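So, can you check this record?

>
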Amino acid sequence: MDFASAFLDAVRGSGRVLLTGPEGPDGDSIGACLALQRALATLAPAVKVEVAGVPGFRYDWLRGADSMLRESQIVDYDGVVVLDGDRHRLPRAVARAFASARWTGLIDHHRSSGGDGYTLPWVDPVCESTCVMIRRLMSAWNVPLDRDYAEALYTGIIFDTGAFRYSNTTASTHTVAAELLAQGIEHWKICEKVLMEKRLPGVRLQARVCDGARLLAGEKVALGVISRATFAELGADEMDVEGIIETLQNISGVALAALVVERGPERTKLSLRSRGGVDVAALAQRISPAGGGHAKAAGASIALPLGQAVQAVEAAVVAAVEAAGL
């Protein structure tokens, strides 16, 4: 792999490197970052490699998660590498570090992520998860698997394949999973922790969103909204949001689900899920320049207050469903 060699040379020529996912990193991003950080610690021990992000309760048990950096801890870096996302959706402090870095990298499997704006981009839209791409890098570098690597990589793979339920699962997905299972990981516990377990505030948050969800476009669209006030009232945080969009998507007859989450006075996050009739990656990019993802699962950051964002999303998703003839 030409990328593997060039990337490792760039790291070895640096004093400090930051690995990061987008704002609010998910299991694939966190697993990929932690596995890559550990591999680079072996291959480039003189380089300080750090990971940005807040892991939350679903991922805080992974090796290295306790050393992940909050925004206030971000400094200057020779290189900044975005995993499982793109430069348009970075937290503000990370975005500043990205802009001032001597070199930048991208490792991602989202079709909507282009290579423009990076020194070293690697995008594989056919790949099921970024963690599988990291496994390929490890193979190219002859880094042997062990249980800690396997737990991090398996976390990302099951997150992005829905524990092998989604259509992006292939025969090679199971081949990689078999390699990881051979390291003795307790795969059932990882599935429970990452995909099933909820805190009580998260259960209440899901109930609140579902109770207030609206069905639009002849009940083909399910739209949910979460405000900062609701987070505060229920004692929930953004990690408790995971899984809610899938619940909306699974409503009988719904072809497209949208969840709008308030992040600040003029900052909202949009999550989209489709059963296949609408390309939500393209839809997310139409809604916001900082949008993208997969055809069936995508998201965006929207620089609007919550009320205006909800109006914009409602108009866009209804139009998309109607245009698709669903």
